[in-house]
Structures are given as structure tokens and as C-alpha cells.
Amino acid sequence: MNDHLAKLLDKKGPIKKIGVIGMGYVGIPAAVLFADSDDFDLILGFQRDSSSSGYKIDMLNRGESPLKGEEPDLEELIEKVVKAGKFHCTSDFSRIAEVDAVTLAIQTPFSNPQELEPDFGALIEGVKQVGRYLSEGTLVVLESTITPGTTDGLARQILEKESGLTAGKDFALAHAPERVMVGRLLRNIREHDRIIGGIDQPSTDRAVELYTPVLTTGKVIAMTATAAEVTKTAENTFRDLQIAAINQLALYCEAMGINVYDVRNGVDSLKGEGITRAVLYPGAGVGGHCLTKDTYHLERGVKISTDALDYPAGQDSLFVLARKVNDFMPVHMCHLTMDALSRAGKNPEGSKVAMLGWAFINDSDDARNPPSEPYRDLLLDAGCRVEVHDPHVMDYPGVDISHELSEVLRDADVLAIMTGHSEYFKLEASVAKNLMCQDHPVIVDGRNVVEPDNYINAGFVYKGIGRGDKNSHPMQ
Ligand code: SAJ
Fold first, then answer.
1. Which residue has the higher pLDDT, 193 or 70?
2. Can you tell me which atom of ligand 1 is nearest the CA of 247?
3. Which atom number of ligand 1 is nearest to the Cα of residue 289?
4. Statement: the pTM of the whole predicted model exceeds 0.85
5. CA 288 / ligand 1 centre spacing (Å)
6. Measured from the CB, is residue 177 less than 6 Å from ligand 1?
């Protein structure tokens, strides 16, 4: 089979026309970087003409970027390749028949965040479209983050069923996971090493041919398709694990009455050949669209594996336990809040909590799966009144988000910092105390934003994640 495919690809010659499906944060920069390469003649960006995102088609064909936020050089590059006739966006998926290679960059959001089950619906629809118009000798590449086993399993089955062709014989199939971050899309594609995994060697080689021209400092790291899927999910699983390790240590330090940041600095000081310690930062929780789901992609992948998993059998893996530690942190924030209210002689019922920060990450408006949401839910369950401030998030379903910090702080019993937005580092204890207008207001610092003594000396009841050295301070 491989020989047949290798001969077919050889006969077809170098990749000249590429299709990119999904004109989003991943697809648009990928498409215009392909278009900017002299190795390729034409890039077609495929976008469903739906009510929610069909507007992107005309915008892109006018050389404009439909993406929000600052993306250095992206708008200029779109305009350049459109003017040069190297890139065109279309909703006519039948034109997939024209291309030598097609990549799919379609989001796999949660269908149910509580169940952490991904919704592969849009991706499956995209794969079906490719299958319908797939021609012999074409390379198909999945860029979305997917459960290990999907490329060589579900995607392969759909493509073969829809096209009547055989993967690894009539067409090449690979996975090349995206590793882009908002604000640095073009730079990440050019400079990050690119994991590329085919279902067989000819597929891997063909995918390496596709991506090599857009890499500047990034290198190709070739492997099998399933290894590529595991790499992508594991790199985020490992980050989540590292964060869980320091969160667990922060809870230990609170219990032992010491400062986790002293310990962190100490552990981090151990450096030298090969003795690294990836000590990250404790906080009020882990949100976002990557770390909250990729562990469960990996877990599902190993569950459908063929050989028996030797450990763990029937209990949480280390990785799932890490997820549970990180998901406990908003609960811990609530415990700290309740303890502090009790020290201040207040009943949670009716107490006003000023929540500072809704976004899942500092100085961003990205509010996907924010730890602030479970924290707020717990406060409401305890009978608290909650007002939320965030300088960047404009709106969020079911939550009023204020942009007036002084209004949110006014007459509040508790000031709780959930996101480390730069604005909060400038807040003075005296200003907060005057606005809160309490003898002993409470501050719960979830992101190590404030200097504890500034607030303790101003009469606050202070609680901070990992601050066992301060959390039982004498009242001023
Ligand atoms: N967080 C901590 N402590 C830390 C670091 C992060 O509590 O030391 C929390 C953040 O507050 C946030 C969550 O974890 O709630 C996720 O933060 P993140 O910095 O990992 O940001 P993400 O979720 O956008 O992760 C993305 C990932 N990139 C891709 O999937 C392409 C991840 O692989 C990158 O490592 C990460 O960006 C990055 O380093 O910027």
C-alpha cells in the first residue's frame, strides 16, 4: 500500500495548491503563511457561509482580518497575499477537488464543560466535506487538538467512506497539531518546532514537505499520527500537572504555616546540567480552552488503546488527580473567604464579595472556562452577594461584569482577587479600605498580587494562596 501511495505522490509532483478548512485563529495564519511561500501557487481558505461566521469570507477576500485583538503583521500579510492572487476564501467546498493538500483547523469545544466531553461535530462535518471531494494523491492533515487515535481511526474511516478511496494507498493522512497562542499566531507557526505524524511514512514525508516552507527557526519533529496526537495532548497535560504540583505544595505550606514563595524560590534555585525543576505558580485555579480539556483527551485516548494499561486500573491517573487539584483551587478560595469572614465576625449570608477578575488569564479578555465561575457559584450558594469586576471582559452569559472598580469595591465585605490583571497591582490598601468602608474588611489574594503587610496593617483580614506565614496574622 505504502509503495502505491509513494508512487502516486511522486507522480503528482510537489504540492502547489493547498486548501485550509476553518478560517479561525489557527486556519487564517496557517493559510496566509502557505500563501506567502514561493513554493506554493494558490491557497484556498474554506469557510462555511453560516450566519455566525460567513462574514469572514468577504472580509478575508478584501484583505482584512476578522480576528479580534492585536496580531502583529497578520493584517498586512492577508492584504499582501490577497493582492498577489495567492489566497482566496470560499464557501464552495467542491473546490477541495482542486488541491494537492488540505488541512483542517476546526475547533473542538466542550459540548458539556461539566462532562468535559469535546464536541467533534464541526470537525467531523469538515472531514466529511473533505471526503466528498477528495481526489487521489491528496494529503489530508488534521491540525485540531484531538483525542489520540482519531486521525488513524475516526477521521480515516470517514474519509474512506465518503471518498471510496483508501488511506495510505490512495491518499496521505497526517496530524500536525497547532501550537499557536493568541497575540503571536504568525510567530508561533514560524518559530515553534512542528510535530508532524502520518499514518505511514509516505504520509509523514508528504506532510513534512507541506510545512517545511513556512518554518523559520522551527524544526520538524516527525513521528506517527497517534504519537503526534499524544504529544499535543501531553504537552498541555504536563503543564497542568506542573501547575497542580505547585498548587498542592501551596496547600501544604498554608497548613504548615510557611510561605510557598520562599519554598518556590528555594526549589527553583536548583539548576545545572539536567537538574531542572519546572516550578510554576500557585493560583486560584486553571482555566482556558487547553489545559482544562487536553488531559481528558489523553485519558480517552489511552482508554481506547488496544493493549491493557498496566497502571492505573480503575482509579484516577496522576494526570486526572492533577486536574482535580487544580479544580479544587476555586473551592479553596471559597474556604479562605469563609474563614476570613468568620475572623472578621461576619456571616457569609448577605456579605458582599467584590470579585476582581473574570478572565482565565492575566491582562486578557479570554473568559473560557474561568476558575472565577465556580468560585462565584460557591459564594452564591453560601448566601453572599457577589459583584464582578474585569477591565477586559466585556460580557459573559448570566454574569454582570463591571468595569468600575470603585463601584464594585464600594461597601464590600470581601475583596477577592481571581485574575492577576496588571490594574490590580496598583490598588492601594488605603484606597480599598476607604471604598469598602469596613473596620475589618477581608482580602483573599488568589494570584499573589498584593503585599500582605500593606493590607494587614491597614486593618484587613488577609488570606493568600500559599501564604501560611500570613494567613493567621494577628488582627490590627
Ligand atoms: N496558571 C497557573 N499557574 C501557572 C501558569 C498558569 O495557575 O504557573 C493558570 C492560568 O491562570 C490560567 C491557566 O493556568 O488560568 C492556563 O494558563 P496557560 O498559561 O497555560 O495559558 P493557556 O491555557 O492559553 O495555554 C496555552 C497553551 N498553548 C497551546 O495550547 C498552543 C499551552 O501549551 C502553553 O504552554 C501556554 O499557552 C503558554 O505557555 O502560554
1. 193
2. 7
3. 23
4. yes
5. 8
6. no
